């Protein structure tokens, strides 16, 4: 009797094991299929969104460098007129001229300091009559180097961080969304960060701000799932830019143009993306790395930055 019970139990456990293996294999296969289709086949298969059909204009914030500049140029290359919004008028004017000459589209420049709260009425009055199909909320700021929160020296750091990374996303979306809803089409692309997908100590406020962008975008995706308006969260790792302070491209650190080409191919395919295939691989790796390893890396970066700053002061 007992032997029969053991035999029966063994059969049950074997069945559970086989089922578990099958489920895991299915999930891995599905994940690989989604990875390949999003990053390598979306353009060839015609899965990517036709952004030009959504409206004649695109708005890009923080557009004079890095990822923002690449979005503005690549959207212009698709024949979409561009509203360029950033802080420095001279840089905006120069970029507008380059974009118009190279891509034969119209541009509008709006000089706005997103670290301030009183800029949005002016932005609204300038764009409210435009047929805006795409909004790229790219403007933002990070830490100069990993830092303990209580040791941040700039008294305006917290307010600037919140305005640039959170207020800008919420307010710009509020400006363009009503008209997108009226015509039942549009794309809001919010640039988050890999630091927003999990708590990142020593970049604490930046991580929290990008977590806001993550939650805000995902909630809007559900809230307006039947509206015709699409929201996308883009969470990059490092690219070559002034913000990252990395000047040399590699497989895991692409140029902004390479990164944005990959990210734009995922619009209409993924509502949440790392944007580029190697950044998705990095995201998988990060998910299995112990937090202690990440903390040690950040502290090491902090030590190097502080030494560099001390050496620079000594040499003055």
Automatic annotation (TrEMBL):
GO cellular component, as recorded: endoplasmic reticulum
Keywords, sorted A to Z: Membrane, NADP, Oxidoreductase, Transmembrane, Transmembrane helix
Stored CDD domains: 17beta-HSD1_like_SDR_c
Residue ranges of the TM segments: 12-33
Gene Ontology molecular functions: oxidoreductase activity
SUPFAM superfamilies: NAD(P)-binding Rossmann-fold domains
Pfam families cross-referenced by the UniProt entry: adh_short
Family per similarity comment: Belongs to the short-chain dehydrogenases/reductases (SDR) family.
PANTHER family, A to Z: RH59310P
Name of the protein in its database record: Very-long-chain 3-oxoacyl-CoA reductase
Species annotation: Elysia marginata
């Amino acid at each position: 009797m007992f032997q029969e019970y053991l035999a029966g139990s063994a059969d049950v456990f074997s069945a559970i094991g086989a089922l578990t293996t099958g489920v895991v294999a299915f999930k891995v296969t599905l994940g690989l299929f989604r990875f390949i289709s999003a990053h390598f086949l979306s353009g060839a298969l015609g899965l990517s969104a036709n952004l030009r059909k959504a409206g004649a204009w695109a708005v890009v914030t923080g557009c004079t460098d890095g990822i923002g500049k690449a979005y503005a140029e690549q959207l212009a290359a698709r024949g979409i007129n561009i509203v360029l919004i950033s802080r420095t008028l001279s840089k905006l004017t120069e970029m507008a001229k380059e974009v118009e000459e190279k891509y034969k589209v119209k541009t509008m420049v709006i000089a706005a300091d997103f670290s301030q709260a009183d800029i949005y009425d002016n932005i609204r009055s300038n764009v409210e009559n435009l047929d805006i199909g795409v909004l790229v909320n790219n403007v933002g700021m990070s830490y100069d180097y990993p830092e303990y929160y209580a040791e941040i020296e700039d008294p305006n750091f917290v307010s600037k961080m919140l305005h640039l990374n959170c207020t800008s996303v919420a307010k710009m979306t509020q400006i363009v969304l009503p008209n997108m809803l009226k015509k039942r089409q549009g794309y809001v692309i919010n640039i988050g960060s890999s630091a927003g997908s999990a708590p990142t100590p020593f970049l604490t406020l930046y991580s929290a701000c990008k977590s806001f962008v993550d939650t805000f975008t995902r909630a809007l995706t559900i809230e307006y799932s039947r509206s015709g308006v699409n929201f996308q969260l883009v969470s990059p790792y490092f690219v070559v830019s002034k913000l990252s302070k990395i000047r040399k491209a590699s497989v895991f650190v692409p140029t902004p143009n390479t990164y944005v080409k990959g990210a734009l191919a995922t619009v209409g395919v993924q509502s949440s993306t790392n944007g580029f295939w190697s950044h998705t691989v990095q995201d998988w790796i990060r998910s299995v790395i112990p937090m202690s390893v990440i903390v040690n890396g950040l502290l090491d970066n902090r030590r190097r930055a502080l030494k560099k700053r001390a050496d620079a002061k000594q040499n003055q």
